[in-house]
Amino acid sequence: MTAIWWVRRDLRLADNHALQAATGASDCIVPVFVLDPALLASPDCGPKRLAFLFAGLRTLDADLRARGSHLIVRHGEPAAELSVLREETGASAIYAEADPWPYARSRDGRVSEQLPLHLVDGLTVHAPGAVLRAGGAPYAVFTPFSRAWRALPGPTARDLVPTPAYLNTPFELPSSSLPEVPPSQLEASFPAGEAEAQSRLGAFLDVVMAGIAGYASLRDRVDLDGTSRLSPYLRFGMLSARQAVVAALQSAGGNRDEVARRGAEAWLNELIWREFYMSILHHHPDMLNGAFRPALRSITWSNDRSVFEAWCSGRTGYPIVDAAMRQLTQTGWMHNRARMVAASFLVKDLLVDWRWGEHFFMQHLLDADPAANNGGWQWTAGVGTDAAPYFRILNPVLQGGRFDPFGAFVRRWLPELAGVPTPFVHEPWKMTLSLQPQAGCVVGRDYPAPIVDHAWARARVLTAYRRGSEP
């Protein structure tokens, strides 16, 4: 018997439950990835993320070839392409990993109307519809969701599915070529593929490297390498969520050092946030179109295109914000604390609709996921589930001083501030006129003056939110 393994967001061979289901039902597996024109043409589909995906698919193909198989690539509408492939191979079933994204659910519905599609959970540890309140309603607040999630039977190392030693794919089938990627779109700091994901996980867990052990205390420092940097690999399933959670649970439960346990618990908490946002999207797909909280859907935004473009290009005059945005546009990744600061500044200081920023992040982030990206933006804007109160407004100067205390992050991404003394690196406009030339940074010439006064902007946004929430 033959089965098709439809690869989507699970570009790996280890701990792959969709692949396991296919191999359990058939002795011949046909791995396929369908280049969907609707997704490739989406305005949310940025070139760096596509480059990362294509590189990951090439790596997956090499891994398959080492095990007697190979990846088939087709280009076209998924239902039509899968139907043709089924006729070519005589496959009795198609196996794929379930995805709560509304487009994916709609697409899979169309496919299942025509073909024997079997969806297998695996994108999250617990299926998005599995963590519910006692009465069966979904959670809309993270803390009780987290408690309920932890109360469910957790995965152990025994639950991880081993990598197949051999996959039988004897067919010589037509296959499209993956698009060529300009070298400029490949980010050297994020090599794609399952082997890289496993290597990063191992380094993060290494007791000598102390990555996970120091996570709780260092993860907010934008100037330090205090995070796992695994998010792009989780986004495309080059690493399974289950393996990450098992690693976190083992580190939290098996470490005698209190600091190390706190680090593991903090990382596990972030993995549960990922599951929370997947659950929210599963139950409330309309969140992708607007604020979760109806009372805050009528805010009057200024939506000044010029200030938005200054934010996008890292030219706001607030160093921590500008450094974050340049890190994003140059590498396709941004530190999570920097994401909160940049998002807060766009919404609260510039009074620009959070959806503009959400879209920009979707275009540029390697790890951009509809659930987490939308959830994070709504949280920061104060309009979503379990959101930060709308009056929580991050001060970019204070955030910079606290999480980049020596200015290393700012100087790395804003070379025009390289010579600015540390006391002024997060507010260079406070340098005297005589000091500015000495520091190699004349404000207004070499680096912009602040685009807005933070105190004034704070008062403005509070008024806008109060009025927007009035009945």
* Number of structurally distinct domains: 3
Give, in spatial order, the strands making up the sheet with the most strands: 3-2-1-4-5
Give me the CATH architecture of the largest domain, please. Orthogonal Bundle
Unreliable spans: none
Largest sheet: 5 strands, parallel
**CATH C-level name of the largest domain:** Mainly Alpha
Q: What is the residue-averaged pLDDT?
A: 95
CATH superfamily of the largest domain: DNA Cyclobutane Dipyrimidine Photolyase, subunit A, domain 3
Short description:
The chain is built from 20 helices and five strands. By secondary structure, the protein is mostly helical.
Walk me through the structure:
- By secondary structure, the chain is mostly helical.
- The protein folds into three domains: 2-123, 3-Layer(aba) Sandwich (Rossmann fold); 124-160 and 193-283, Serine Threonine Protein Phosphatase 5, Tetratricopeptide repeat (Alpha Horseshoe), CATH 1.25.40.80; 294-468, DNA Cyclobutane Dipyrimidine Photolyase, subunit A, domain 3, CATH 1.10.579.
- 47% of the residues lie in helices and 6% in strands.
- A five-stranded parallel beta sheet has the order 3-2-1-4-5, sandwiched between helices.
- Helix 5 (102-114) links the parallel strand 4 (93-97) and strand 5 (117-120).
- Helix 13 packs across helix 14 (336-349).
- The protein is globular, with a radius of gyration of 24 Å.
- The relative contact order is 0.11.
